[in-house]
Amino acid sequence: MDHTRDNPLKRFSAFWIAILLATSFGIALIITQPFAPDKTDKAYEMVGEGRLEIKEEIDRAQNDALNEAALADALQAQAKSFDKNTESKGSMPIPSAAPASAEKPAE
């Protein structure tokens, strides 16, 4: 913009005109939204219903096949193995474990 034609009143009015245009466009979109066509595909919905039925059948079969008692026993065994701070040959040292010389008391 040419500096001779620039003044604060023109900038101020241009700002509010832009705000008014953006707001009116948003209001127009909100008003016309109910008249917009629904873009869901009927064939996709029909195939989706079949897929949901298959998924429900698979979920039911998995829940029936799940042995919760064996799972709880396996989790308990795993938790007990985590409590042990034993190092196997070639394993990395555990930072929280005490050094080997401190484990044996000096006599």
Low-confidence runs: none
**Mean pLDDT figure:** 82
Largest sheet: none
Q: What is the β-strand count?
A: 0
- Rg (CA only): 35 Å
Helix residue percentage: 55-70%
Helix segment tally: 4
Query: What class would the helix/strand composition place it in?
Result: mainly alpha
Q: Assign an overall shape.
A: flat
N- and C-termini, Cα separation: 92 Å
Elements, N to C (H/E): HHHH
**DSSP strand content:** under 5%
Please describe the structure with a list of short key phrases separated by commas or semicolons.
107 residues; mainly alpha
Describe this structure in words.
There is one protein chain. The protein is mainly α. It has a domain at 42-81. Helix content is 64%, strand content 0%. The protein has helices spanning 8-32, 42-65, 68-83, 100-103. The relative contact order is 0.04.
Topology:
Layout: H1 8-32, H2 42-65, H3 68-83, H4 100-103
What is the gist of this entry?
Helix content is 64%, strand content 0%. It has 107 residues and is mainly α. It has a domain of 40 residues.
